[in-house]
Amino acid sequence: MPAQHRVAPRPPRFPGTSRRQFLGYLLAAPTLAVGVKLTADSVLEAEALPSPAPEVSEVYDLSDLLADSTRPTANLITVVLERDGTVSFSMPRAESGQGITTMAAMLIAEEMGIPVSDVNVTLADARPELLFNQQTQGSSTVISIYTPIRVAAALARGRLLEAASTLLGDEATNLRTTGGKVVSEAGSSIPFAQLATAAANSETREALTELKGPDDFTVIGTPQRRDDVRAAVTGKKNYTMDIDVPGAVPTMIARPPTIKGTVESINNEDQVRSMPGVTDVVEISTDAAPGRGTTSSGVAVCARTFGQCIDAINALDITWGGGNADGESDESILRQLRASPAPVNLPSPTPLDQVGGQIPLATEGLGNVGPVEAVEQEFVFHWRSNSAMEPNVAVADVRSDSAEVWTPSQIPINTQDQLARELDLTTGQVTVHVTRGGGAFGRRLFNDAPLEAARVSKEVGKPVKLMWHRADECRVGRVHPMCISRLRATYSPGAKQVVSFEQRHTSVATDYTEAFGDMISSQAAKLPFANELTLSQTVFLLTASVPYDVGAVALGYNEIFDFDKFATGSSRNLNNMDVRPAQELMIDLLAAKLDEDPLDFRLDRLESDRAKAVLEKVRDEGDWGRDLPEGVAQGVAVHNEYKGTVAVLAEVDTRPATANRDIRGATTGPRVRKVTVAVDVGLPINPLGLKAQMEGGVMTGIAHVFTGSLHLRDGNFLEGSWDDYRYTRHWNSPPELDVHVMPATGERPGGAGELGVGVSVAAVACAYARATGTTPTSFPIGHTKDVPFRVKPFVPPLPPSPEDGLTSYPTPSAAGPVFNPAS
Amino acid sequence: MPPHTFKVNGRPVTVDVEDDVRLLWVLRDLLKITGPKYGCGINVCKACTSHINGRAFNPCSVPVGQIRPTDEITTIEGLPETVGADLHPMQEAWIDRDVPQCGYCQPGQIMAAVDLVKKVKADGGAITDDDIDGIRNMCACGTYSRIREAIKQGAANM
Lengths: 823, 158
Known about the structure:
A: Aldehyde Oxidoreductase, domain 4; Aldehyde Oxidoreductase, domain 4; 26% helix; B: 5-stranded mixed sheet; 5 helices
């Protein structure tokens, strides 16, 4: 039965708003429009503290931080019923494939009683009044907007019932909404289209509503296809470079042959400007954080086509200054990482204080476990790119007193603010349209492309459509920094117990300034640890935890270099893409030392019942322990984050006949042939979208284990294309991949976008270790084996466009031999 | 600039542009046919995969001067017309399996899949996992499992 609803009397007074009542606004508008003010839902429920001492992230994690810093302004979202009976919602988030617009449409459809397909969700322009509430990151969207969207829709439904009661001559309490109509118990009905103006409000006022209970859900929890699936498969989905902004000229940038280098002089500007199609050649700053840190520059070229931009860039004769990391290579970075061990007694949160910030070397307090032995292991994680299929893009039209920009920003308010500063405009003079992105993965948390586009547009005095070349995505684009994790655990063979578990993670500095910086500052008083921690340490402590009871746990994090020596940023699953695999490999080593089955070992020590349930699910569905030929093995891992929990069971085939399979130009190697995932996000909204996110996590995880990395050599990254940077391809993808969505275990949804990455890396790595009998300690495994491609020149900066496309399908003529990363 | 005349999605087009401009940019920047996407520009990611005279190719790597007046280019936008329907069976399978996430690579994936299935069928076979393993089209969201299912489903209806 739908929940009760009433419109508040005027003047509104709502003393003692009950737990399940929510306050909102009926807005003065030509058709029915509602806005939401968030009330009771914003209270963080105190969680029972697990014993003995929880890591910080188990009590207050990154998604809490993101949700908390977005709460003060979540009241400003609005839902509008259009005259045709469809519903519009302008969502202050970025949609880059995660499926959040579809999810929002489902939530509205659920509360209003309208088909999901009649809800049209668009992306809101930058709205500075939303403060922190327009960031899309950290898998936080569903957590932060789940309730506000439903409240707005419930208010709209209540207004529709009221308006219909007059027309139908029946009490509103005898009416309900379904299929986009209000229907009475007697069977008469009115479509929403006929109520859009009748239910409109002439003045804005407050109203109360209640939400449907989970037992009444008919849309939430059901599989729904993406709202743009048809557009995507017919070529009609418009990405930034597909938008036809009148007069916008294709623009690309010649970038330095060194990291963050600068232009000293352009030596043949006139000659290049006279090339076919070329209209402009200008030196511009490529500084992605104006007024802060290292600057860099390049030469922008505008032309009739992007192809002519590429040719012109390669014809430029530029004298370049030095770079920011000249002389550095993987080996030199590794030496510096090793020379900077992370302290385990960081300025510490309460739990660590309780153990004095130190690993207890004696066994007091843990019972008489007898003598202990230790396992120590270092893991090295090389540079990774988080590049999406769509490169960095922006369209900019900068005038003397205004600027209009289109870009798939994950942080449009910050984009608008930076553009305004850069262009000497007020934020009100800068419009930022958020376009649907061709992937984001953290890459669009920075304003590299919109700033560059705006600078060029201002300089050349016309609108420009700026796109990065793929080579630049690899070489200049932001990277997940190289890092090492040192683990040490002690265990008691006699008591068959793990006594302590210590992880010290040392990384090249990560640039979190754009996205997390201001947010963390705004919430510093609420964080359960001292605010003298660096930004990166804060992010680490908000995300790192060990899901198992492994005695006393100590986690430490530190960094080398300034935040902007390299161009770094957030990648999918942040630190946990490395931190968790290191832990899980260690868990397997401990299980072996204590002569226990890896899965049973985990099951016995998991602290959460939800985590146990997902592990049991993959054990049963994935047939853990089944007979496998030599060289084929299973691995398993469990991960809790973003209010959810997930288990992955992977089966890896390392036999030579498989690993050396011959696909021309492919990176083959060990094959992950079967993956079973079980995921519990509390309340699954759209199981179809959730499965897709888990599948994507598995594919990214496979790349992180075997082949996906950047090689730093002499101050530059060597990779320059999708054949150099070896992300998972069809030839690596598991032929069998099953994702099991657990039934709802709570009343609130958790995040999904990043949940599946680190745990997949871990499960695949553990399987590989068991299949080969050797624990991999350097990731991806193929990184140190070879640079399996011919390194493209850095001057000129772009690989020339091939001419043999009519004779070289499907494999390019330049394709190298098969590469087996495990050979 | 020499004019270039050929057929795109069933309709004749003429463009004035230098011979060496790659067809991808002629389609996207001049003809405003934006279904084929840029992903690498050097024929390795396959996001721009389209058909020429019914066979798959990558327009990022073909100078427009190599296109003959009799050549028929089909992009994702023109795929349904090749079967005289609103949607090609491969597109229907893609929708049914809810394959896309960000969707950027999917036009290329579909065009590659249609070509592969036609080739396998012409050889008298049925599509296998090994055939699908050989597709080079890159997807950074990681939709490969659903693509694998959709190709088999779409092939059954082609």
